[in-house]
Amino acid sequence: MNIRRHGRTDQRGFTLAELLVVIAVIGVIMIGILTLLMTGNQSYLTGANQAEAQAAARAALERITLDMREAGYGPLTDQNCNPPTPPAFCFNAVVNPTNTAFTLQSDWNGSGAIQPGVVVQLSYCFGGPCPPAAFTNVNRGEQITYSLAGGNLQRQESGVDAQAQILITGVQQVAVGLDCGGALIANPAIFQYCDANGQAVANPGATPEQIRMIVVNMRVGVQNQPPAIWQAGAISVTMSDRIRLRNRLQ
Questions:
Q1: What is the DSSP letter of 3?
Q2: Contacts for 52-58 with beta carbons within 8 Å, 24 or more apart?
Q3: CB of 142 closer than 8 Å to CB of 114
Q4: Structural contact between residues 143 and 105, judged by C-beta atoms closer than 8 angstroms
Q5: pTM confidence score
Q6: pLDDT by residue (tens digit) across 48-65?
C-alpha cells in the first residue's frame, strides 16, 4: 500500500500479525454464521419431519376409522353373534383379532354370507326417486384385513387387492398409550379390543362377538425417506384413538 505524504511515498503495509488477527476474526464470524444456518436447517427439518409423520399417522387412523364405522353392516341382520345359538345370517364384525392384526367383515350385497368380493350398486342421487343413471357399480370386498408386518401397517380388501397394501411404514409400539377406558397405560398393544362396557375383552380370538371397540396405539416416524436424509431431524410421533363399531352397539 503506497501512501504519499509530504511529497514522498509511504511503503508501509499490513504486518503478518495484523493479517492473522483479521483472518481469525473473519473465521469466528463465519463459524457463527455456519452454526446459525445449520441450527436453522435442522430445526426446519425436524419440524417438517414431525408434520409429515403426523399427517401419515392421521391418514392411516382415518382409513381404519372409516372401515371400522362400516364393519358389521348387513341388511339381513343387525344382531350379535352370541353363542351358543347365534341368529340366522349372523356374522362377526371383527374376526381373527390379535395384537398386530384383525379382519373386518360386512355383508354388502345382503346375501347372508361373507364373500371375498361383490359388486354393489351405489346411488349418487339425493332425495329420490333416483333415475337409473344415478346408480353405479362398485367392487367391494366383504373382508378388510389390517396387519403389521416388518414395521409396515398394511390393508388388504378381499376380492379387490391382490396383495396387502402398505399404509404407513416404521410403525412401532408406544411407551405410553390409551386402554379401553381411556386411561394411560405403559406399553399397550398396537391393537386392543374392548366390549360394550368399555372393558378389555379377555380372549378376543375366542369371543370376537364381544368386540365393540378397537383401541389403536402406534408410534410412527418419517415416511419413505432414507435415514441418511432425515437422521439429523429424526422424529417420531405417537397417535392413539378409540374407534367404536357403529353396526354393533349392544
A1: E
A2: 52/222, 52/223, 53/220, 53/221, 53/222, 53/223, 53/235, 53/236, 53/237, 54/237, 54/239, 56/168, 56/220, 56/223, 57/168, 57/218, 57/220, 57/237, 57/239, 58/239
A3: yes
A4: yes
A5: 0.77
A6: 788 888 888 899 999 999
